[in-house]
Amino acid sequence: MNTQGLQAGKSLATGRFASGAVALAIALASAPLGQAFAQEQTSAEEAFASSRHWASQIRSYASKSLNSDEALSVAVIPLNGPGIEQYVNADTLMSPGSIMKLVTTYAAL
C-alpha cells in the first residue's frame, strides 16, 4: 500500500508540474498578444480622435454617391462611455423603405 501511495504522490506532483508548465506556456504565449492588443487599442483611440467629427465626411459621401446632401439622415448617439453625439439631417422627415416597398408592390399589382 505504501508504494501505491508513493506512486499516487508522484503522479500528483507530475500533474502539478505539467499544469504549471502549461500555465507558464500560456502566459509566455499571451505576452505578445497583450502587447499587440495594447497597440491595437492605441491605434483605435488615435483613429477615433482623428475622426471625431465625421459628419462632414458623411455629407460629402451623400452628395457624391446619392447626388444630394439631403438623401441621407444619420443620428449617432453613444450608448455608454464617452463620445460625441453627431447628427446629419436627423430632423428631416423621410419615408421608410418598408412603406415604399408596400407602395411599389401595390402599384405593381
Describe the protein:
The protein is flat and about 50 Å long. It has one domain (2-108). With 109 residues, it is mainly alpha-helical. Helix content is 66%, strand content 6%. Mean pLDDT is 67; it is low at 5-17. The protein contains three helices and two strands; from the N terminus they run H-H-E-E-H. The protein starts with a helix and ends with a helix. It has a two-stranded antiparallel sheet with strand order 1-2.
Largest sheet, spatial ordering of strands: 1-2
Radius of gyration: 30 Å
Written as H for each helix and E for each strand, in order along the chain, the element string is HHEEH
State the helical fraction. Answer: 55-70%
Shape: flat
**Count of extended strands:** 2
Oligomer: single chain
Through-space gap between termini: 89 Å
In terms of per-residue confidence, which ranges show pLDDT below 50 for 5 or more consecutive residues?
Answer: 5-17
Structural class: mainly alpha
How many distinct helices? 3
Mean pLDDT score: 67
* Major pleated sheet: 2 strands, antiparallel
